[in-house]
Amino acid sequence: MTHQEEVLALERRFLDDFRTVYFTLHDIIKDNPCGITTWNRALMTEGPVHCMQSDFSCMISPAAFRRLGKWYLDEQAGLFANVLYHLDGTNALPHLPMLCGIAKLDGIQVVYQVPHGKRITELMPIWRQIAAAGKRIEIWAQNPAELADVLPFLEMRPPRGLKLNLFPQDREAADALVEGIARLGYPFE
Questions:
Q1: Complete DSSP assignment for 139-180
Q2: How far apart are CA 121 and CA 125, in angstroms?
Q3: Does the pLDDT value for residue 95 go beyond 80?
Q4: 13: phi then psi, degrees, rounded to nearest 5
Q5: How far is 98 from 148, CA to CA, in rounded Å?
Q6: pLDDT interval class at 115 (50, 70, 90)
Q7: Are strands 136-141 and 36-37 parallel, antiparallel or unpaired?
Q8: CA distance 184 to 165
Q9: 3-state secondary structure string across 29-40
Q10: Dihedral of the CA atoms 20, 22, 24, 29 (nearest 10)?
Q11: CA 116, CA 131: separation in Å to the nearest integer?
């Protein structure tokens, strides 16, 4: 990869600007009694919170991402009381071992994209790798194919620390999910 020093310099500048903008806005809203959330509604907390992601990582090798991105993620994760990484798509999966090693990262959200070939139940090794690293797991299920995977996935007894964001299309689908989850003995929070 060429221009690595330029990429690193731009990342440093962006991190400084991000820190300034984020904490300026945080100071404005921090006293809101409803708490603070992120762009993906993944986390609700009283302190600074962020959901990091890097589409850039999908275009480079794990070695290049360690060289160009890990320091940035370490620094960014250190700014927040609660931080999640949005691992978006199949091309991002090779970076999972590095992400699991970021000490200040609280959890990883994997977008598994049923239409692109992977079923939630096929990714159990990924969920177990995330859990073994002590990270929370977050999964979103929005379309009927994804929602159909939820109960078979839960029957596989995924690791603790799992957060499911479920978006059924109608009341009937929602009731069926609630009934199925309760039948499996999972608590609701």
A1: EEE-SHHHHHHHHHHHHT-PPSSEEEEE--SSHHHHHHHHHH
A2: 9
A3: yes
A4: -65, -45
A5: 31
A6: very low
A7: unpaired
A8: 17
A9: HCCCCCCEECCC
A10: -170
A11: 24
In contact, 167 and 142? CB cutoff 8 Å: yes
Task: Sort strands 44-45 and 162-166 into parallel, antiparallel or unpaired.
Answer: unpaired
* Other CB atoms within 10 A of residue 52 CB: 19
- What string of DSSP letters covers 77-96? HTT-SEEEEEEESGGGGGGH
Structure tokens at 89: 């798509």
Which helix (H) or strand (E) covers residue 110, if one does? Answer: strand 107-111
Q: Which residues pair with 33 in a beta bridge?
A: none
What's at 163, amino acid-wise?
A: K
The answer to whether 120 and 139 are in contact (CB under 8 A) is: yes
Contacts of 58 (CB under 8 A, 6+ apart): 88, 89, 91, 92
Tell how far CA 103 is from the center of its chain. Answer: 15
Structural domains for the chain: 4-183 (3.80.30)
Q: What is the pLDDT of residues 31-86, one digit of tens each?
A: 876 767 666 665 566 678 888 888 888 889 999 999 999 999 999 999 988 888 98
